[in-house]
Amino acid sequence: MKLGEGVEAAIHCAAMLAGVDGEATMPASAMAEAFGLSPSYLLKHLNMLTASGILESVSGPAGGYRLAQPAERITLLDIVLAIEGREPAFRCAEIRRNGPVRLDPSAYLKPCGINAAMLKAERAYRSALAEAKLSDIVAEYMSDADPRSVAAGCAFVARHQRPQKSSSTKQT
Amino acid sequence: MKLGEGVEAAIHCAAMLAGVDGEATMPASAMAEAFGLSPSYLLKHLNMLTASGILESVSGPAGGYRLAQPAERITLLDIVLAIEGREPAFRCAEIRRNGPVRLDPSAYLKPCGINAAMLKAERAYRSALAEAKLSDIVAEYMSDADPRSVAAGCAFVARHQRPQKSSSTKQT
Lengths: 172, 172
Description:
Low-confidence stretches of chain A: none
Number of strands of chain A: 2
Radius of gyration of chain A: 21 Å
Mean pLDDT of chain A: 93
Oligomer: homodimer
Strand order of the largest sheet of chain A: 1-2
Helix content of chain A: 40-55%
Strand content of chain A: under 5%
Number of helices of chain A: 7
Order of helices and strands of chain A: HHHEEHHHH
Structural class of chain A: mainly alpha
């Protein structure tokens, strides 16, 4: 089982955006710089987060990305599904039906027990991810991470965030 | 997040091997036929299961595969890890260290909170897979699946299993 590398980038960017002031935005280029990533690589994942309603993008000279919802309402599950898609990790191809003895489709009305067991485990995984709020991730970072890292992170956000004029409105 | 297709084949084969009599084996070609899979594709996964101590292979005219342990002691987690490898699905590349401000490595002694949260969810997934015994999968299949499917499956095993002479010993 493997998650794409974009998941790490997406969660870090969302956590960073949880730290901008009010309606301010952060350009993708700044986030790419913060994590040493290629801007085009990161843009793809930021756009996935935007399409899923986790981020919103603002255009214009003060444009960039910001959270579309409070960090308390965004979970790691939201982010993982936005990047990886909503399909289960285990894809049942119904190979039980492929054998030399072809039975009537009515013999397979009940779901395959193997698929059911794999999906049960995946529900446990998703449930644990759904309990991990972005706000908790950020709060733990602020309280538990090395103070030098926190100071450097906050200074980076303060330097790169783009405050909005009072007339700016969210793109929803 | 995606599991390889081989996981489905591996679990089905292990479940089928739980149904052979005593020390009997089942050739890979029969299992490939049972699930409509290419023998070379399946062989790769059977060898992974053998390398992990879930199956054992017997050579010679009555050769094939059989479970290396009682089905009660084999879990879906064992099979998934044998096929997919033991690494976590979330691979932390420590992108938190890549930014423009390079801090001393001592600033990163504590694990990244994002990695910790992702690994916590993965422990929940693995724990659920570890609770799913192969013997339970087989018992549920025997009691709950359509009787036509059970009859066809049992007949297939009876036809293709290869009893061992009394002198045969397990390859451990």
